Amino acid sequence: MTRAVFVDDVDEAVADVADGSTVLIGGFGPAGMPYELIDALIRQGASDLTVVNNNAGNADTGLAHLLAKGRVRKVICSFPRQKDSWVFDGLYRDGKLELELVPQGNLAERMRAAGAGIGAFFCPTSVGTPLAKGKETREIEGRTYVLEYPIHGDVALIKAHRSDRMGNLVYRKTARNFGPVMATAAATVVVQVGEVVEIGELDPEAVVTPSIYVDRVVRVGDSVRGTT
Amino acid sequence: MTLSKEEMAQLVARDIEPGSFVNLGIGQPTMVADHLTSGAGVVLHTENGMLNMGPAAKPGEEDLDLTNAGKEPVTELPGAAYFHHADSFAMMRGGHLDVCVLGAFQVSAAGDLANWHTGAEDAIPAVGGAMDLATGARSVFVMMGLFAKDGSPKLVPECTYPLTGIGCVDRVYTEHAVFEITAEGVVVRETFGTTYDELTERLDVPLRAKSSGW
Fold first, then answer.
1. CATH code assigned to B5-56+65-212
2. Read out DSSP for A96-156?
3. If A150 and its partner were Cys, which of A17, A78, A114, B158 is the partner (CB 3.0–4.6 Å)?
4. Using a CB-CB distance cutoff of 8 angstroms, which residues of chain A are in contact with residue B83?
């Protein structure tokens, strides 16, 4: 018996995402973006979502498509502005999207903290900048730090390269990015993979996300928008 | 003669100690990679989770799972390592990275850096990893034009743009001169196509000549 449930299609994988959820979505630009799960979330219809991703969507697909459908109330990200972020740009300028801009290291560490049971942490990034405005600071051994709180997800949608039948995951190259951290930080972790292998076929020394973090796995085969 | 962007990149590359772990920011700093010799053993870090990043991928050989901080397809060198985002930023924030090279809108005489936001009301703010790099890397090198398009200096007494980090810049490479930001003030290390006296006239920042001995 394993925790991870293997489902047959992406629609089943995201069927229970509730309105108002905080959804952690993996990827750094297109690399590691779980396009098929996002498409399923769009079909599923959940709205009033808070989305956490490094960016705020590229071109008209994936996260940008979810934003264009009006399902997202707030984006928490480090770098919304891209040469092809026209969907976000338009909604933001029209006041239809709330933005919480977070330095990239804080974004990763706040999710790591959530996954590790850390209540808050002091960090030197953003000291003296507008992004530290209104936040508690403390001097520790002569250096100033800003207090940062964890980001917990209700759901994480991530993309991995391969899963075994336990739900142990390995990733591929820089498509790993936020996946392993998000997998620790959400109540329900849904993973799309390119390949499922039998137990024993993954080198235990090379497992990146151990199965304890994984709730659902769906195989999507070769993604048309990137290698898997 | 003032330096070309290529020559600036060459100069920065020459100043990076062999064996350093280095992060090159998006834009002009990326050009530094072309001037690092393989014998120097400099290891490039990319914030999206890789050490020993190689050059840009050749057309037709791009892998969408292998990109740099600017989301451009790159390659891996032998000895490369992949890691997740929290580890990648722990490398910066924990002081493990020797050097980062960043672009800038402004640098102050005290080494404050402004490079993420012009403060314009209609601008969409985006910070990425700039604050983490500026705060965490052991040495922060800035590459920038010394003057803005309107002719105003970008090396300033106090930054007027929103800050990225305070007191974090160690050295500024421009087409006219290389400046060291030290506890004793801004030191002009070398000049190109201009003189120390001309620079003191054109900048509002008190300068010291490297040769003046401090």
1. 3.40.1080.10
2. -SEEEE--HHHHHHHHHHHHHT---EEE-TTTTSGGGTT--EEEETTEEEEEE----EEEE
3. A114
4. 176
pLDDT tens column, B121-167: 888 999 999 999 999 999 999 999 999 999 999 999 999 999 999 99
* pLDDT tens by residue, A24-51: 999 999 999 999 999 999 999 999 999 9
For residue A134, tell me if it sits in a domain.
no
Within-domain flag for A145: no
Asked if residue A138 is part of any domain, the answer here is no
* Residues A101 and A110 sit within 8 Å (Cβ to Cβ): no
What does the alpha-carbon distance between residue B125 and residue A80 come to, in Å, rounded to a whole number? Answer: 8
* Domains in chain A, number: 1
Measured between alpha carbons, how far is A55 from A104 in angstroms, rounded to an integer? 10
pTM: 0.95
Amino acid at site B4:
S
Give contacts of B90 with chain A, Cβ < 8 Å. Answer: 109
Which of A81, A104, A127 has the highest number of chain B CBs within 10 A, making it the mutation to test binding with B? Answer: A104
Please tell me the distance in Å from B193's CA to the nearest CA on chain A: 35
| Average pLDDT value for chain B | 95
Contact call for residues A112 and A104 (beta carbons, < 8 A): no
Q: For B195-200, which contacts have Cβ atoms below 8 Å and span 24 or more sequence positions?
A: none
Give the distance from residue B159's alpha carbon to the nearest chain A alpha carbon, in angstroms.
11
